[in-house]
Structures are given as C-alpha cells and as structure tokens.
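#structure-requests
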Amino acid sequence: NANQADPEVEAVSKPRSGPKTKAEPATAFKAPETKQPVAKTAKPSLEDKNRPAGVERPATVDDLKLISGVGPKIEATLHSLGIYTFAQVAGWKKAEREWVDGYLNFRGRIERDDWVKQAKALAKGGVAEYIRVFGKKPV
C-alpha cells in the first residue's frame, strides 16, 4: 500500500524521545581553578657542572649592556652569577651558554643574538672592534 509508511523508514525518521545516556552538567568541563605554567622547564641548578665559572667582582667591570640583548636586569643577574667581563662571556662553551640560557629562561636568545661573538669583539678592542666586526655601534 502506497499510503502506508515503510516501518524501517518510519523508525529512522521519528525523532528520538530523549538521549539514551544522561548528559553531564556543564560544570563537569570547567577548567581547574589553579593555572599550571605552560611547559616551563625547570631552572638549572646553581650547582650544575655546566654553570659558567664566576669570579669575585673585579675592581673594573665591563658594561655588559653593550651586548645586544643584555639590559640592566640581565646584567644584574649575570653579576649575581659572578659574570662581570666580556672575556668571561667570550669564553663560554656550548654547555655554559645553554646553562645560562636556561637559567635566564631565554629559549635560545644567547645563540640568536650571538653574545659570545659580541663579547669577543668587545673584549678584544672595545666599541671600535665591535663596529669593525658588526658594522654598527653596540646597542
């Protein structure tokens, strides 16, 4: 009979009376109250073997702020680690650069800004050598 609906089609086309599983209240998906830092790595230990050797504050300290990327706050932190001279920064090996980078939470900035090359130029001949190597005055 053409006027009678096919039972399979009727079963599919009928709206359901309700969900078979009970929905959780909206609060079940609420974010936790305490915010966790986003993938922040632990600060390297001051006792780590890769920490650059610090020295006692010399009578004359270099203006580490001449290194691009070093401002007053970073310079103070470097001083607190016993880093006072361009020669110290110029002598950093890869492991030492990585340690300082991690300690300052810089994510590669020391390499990107090439602190070691800048420090070598400044230690060798000051601002004049820096200009010769980089073609500009230190920032």
